[in-house]
Design a protein that fits this description.
139 residues; 5 helices; 2 domains; Helix Hairpins; mainly alpha; elongated
Length: 139
Amino acid sequence: MNKKKNQNSILDDIPFTFPAYLEANKIQKKVASVGFDYKNELESIAKVNEELEELKIELKAKNKKKIKEELGDLIFATLDVSRKLKLDPEVILKNANNKFSKRWRRLEKEAKKENLILNKLSIKKYNSLWGKAKKIVTS
């Protein structure tokens, strides 16, 4: 007997087994398809700023539960920006990882040239080395 499951929500057919970023993208596309969407990219970026401010408030309050919630909202909002821009967040994040890794390797080379030990550096020195790395490794 083949029973068709009653669909109570437009989100019901999104597999919970999807990676979180893909699930977020599917959720955002579904709700946008019925009009729950920002008019443009700038409105979706404004939502990112709003979520960032909410995260800052919870960080100041040291509310761990709310910090996790707001960080999740911030990540969700940034994924929505990529959807609005029609850019694949997996590709974007992979590129960001690669750029960061290249810059980090350059930072390590600079530190080695200066006979510096990484776990002994101040954040000020790290920022200085990072600035050098950024100038050398642009992408």
